[in-house]
Write a structure and sequence with these properties.
With about 80 residues, the protein is mainly α. The chain has one domain (about 5-80). The chain is about 75% helix and about 0% strand. The chain is elongated. About 20% of the residues are buried. Keywords: Membrane, Transmembrane, Transmembrane helix.
Length: about 80
């Protein structure tokens, strides 16, 4: 179990980190437009590929999804000016 700690940690950091700029861009796009949809879903294939390459199971999906959503939320807050870097 501990052998998977570093790959899991890096995957979660990636899911969060890559979604902050995507959330920032999403906040500036018209809601339900193609750009808005793309900014929300762009990171998902990369997260899935990384998870599979590291041999991490389905039980990790809620954590990666949570980090991706948090990144989107933080990026949107940065764009609106509610969160200062």
């Amino acid at each position: 179990m501990y052998a998977q700690t570093l790959p899991l940690s890096t995957l979660l950091i990636f899911a969060l980190g890559v979604n902050v700029p995507l959330g920032y861009l999403r906040q500036g796009a018209r809601k339900y437009s193609l750009a808005w949809f793309t900014y929300i879903h762009l990171s998902i294939p990369f997260i899935i590929i990384w998870r599979l390459a590291e041999g991490l199971g389905w039980e990790i999906v809620p954590f990666t999804l949570g980090c991706a959503l948090l990144g989107q939320f933080l990026g949107g807050m940065l764009r609106r000016g509610n969160l200062r870097p």
